[in-house]
TrEMBL record:
UniProt-recorded name of the protein: BTB/POZ domain-containing protein
Pfam families: BTB, NPH3
Family the UniProt entry places it in: Belongs to the NPH3 family.
Region (Disordered): 546-586
PROSITE patterns: BTB (PS50097), NPH3 (PS51649)
InterPro entries per record: BTB/POZ_dom, NPH3/RPT2-like, NPH3_dom, SKP1/BTB/POZ_sf
Amino acid sequence: MAPAGKISGFHREGNDWFSDASLPSDITLVVDDTNFHLHKFPLISRCGKIANIVEESQSTSDHTFEVLEEFPGGADTFFMIVEFCYGGRVEFTPRNIVMLYCAADYLDMTDYYDDDNLLPKAESFFHRHILRHWKDCILALQSCEPVIPRADKLQIISRCLNALSVMVCTDPSLFGWPMMMYGTMQSPGGSILWNGINTGVRIYSTKSDWWFEDISCLCVELFERLIRTMEEKGIRPENLVSAIMYYCKKYLPGLDRWHGGQSGISRKVGSFSLRPVTIDRSVLLRAVVKLLPEKKGKSFCRFLLGLLRVALILGVNHTCQDALEKRIGTQLELVTIDSLLIPSYSDSDTLYNTDCVERMVHHFVRSEPSLTSISPSSFVLETSPSSGRLKRVGRLVDNYIAEVASDVNLKPGKVRSLAEVLPESSRSLHDGLYRALDIYFKKLSIDACAHASQNERLPLRVILQVLFFEQMQLRTAIAGWLNVLHRESAPAASSTAPTEMATQIVQRDGWVTVVRDNQVLKVDMARMRSRVGELEQEFSKIKEGMKNVTKSHSHLSSKGVGPTRDLSSPHSDLSSPPFVAKGVGPARLARRRKNIVYSD
């Protein structure tokens, strides 16, 4: 049934809309706190839902009042429908078609009430115009975000996704996309024209990323569903991965910098402008981790590390972090040292997130069960396909330890766990590990040095290195003392300056505990200079002698050197015969030790 006549218009007063008709309103409908004072007959002649509302309310009152909850499109869309019901004309566009389509379904505006009703009109426009053009389909799909459940019920989203997936597989010129490669010398179907004659030669663009920017304007849920639909339609996985990377770099700040690449050029065509979309970064990360296929490559691995950094910054759930760490760990041989230096974004005292790196190395070891069975000296290590990967990861871990070793808050236990996380077969030589430990020992305190010198599990070479640095620290401190005393010229000041300087050294270095009396320092000053030099010479000779410790017992016996003694033992005595270097007798060494005062 058609409305009795067309009403000229409406006017608004605050949050209330009124028709310009002379007849009083007999129905009030509320949409998003906006009151529409209307007439029953024009509405019930087209809207089945309103007809049912009026029928139910006639027994109680002549004036009907109803709140339309969760109306698709809000008050603006409802006003367009009101104009249509009063005889007005609705203009469909790619931006409003989905809302009008869903609103017509909400109000049950089917052809049962009118042959030319809004729902069949919207359905016809959607099929004839939206699904046949790329940009219109993108705009319509983007507008589905606020009404996803109802749009799914009407199969609007699924039809848009299928249409877009087919268009990606097809020549863009076939669905209205302008191709400017040959200017006007191109037929509508994409063939090259010669003097206006179709040559039949097709034009194929070498770029497959023309659609990345357009689909990046979709919300996370619709983007994820589009990628899955494209995967089902047979789009190449590498193109899908590139589209996902483009989407992530657009909405995750800093990811493009960590990835080391540059964003693709956005495609701008005529009036095709998409409104910006608001993205929840945590939701995006969780969706991307599920979307990404199993792929390996340096660029892809660097992208995964960038995602992991963002996940650590945002504090997303551990399931997402673990999935990223596992993916990176399975291709850890492709990682570079700079991308592995992940800062500690939590309350940890350490500068870098070493726990995260250790977990990734564990994932690498688990991904290759055969690695633990390879001997470092076996022929299998050289011929196994996994040996190259294992060695690269071994060098990477050693370099990583060397980079983080300068962190003063890095605990010895963490250094050890990082060094032992790989099997023994990962290092045919230990040069990288030695360099890492060398850097770490330079920042040890006196307590750590004392512990290391007595640690039976450390090799003698490492213990000598610790003792060497300890002596260098002693020499530096004494030299600083002497320089301060030389600069003191005033007698009054000389009585207090050494004591104050000694206190400062105690506080700064943490291992000088003896504060000498001023008179004792003056007497021993000259003697100390010569003794420090003798200490250095003696230590150099000890180092030369210790090189023979690693030789076999029989070889040592042939040289006339006694059995070695464990330096880690608290009762070890460097003056005993087995440790006396060539040219340094026990008596001479004892005299020197008697005249030297060691720190506690």
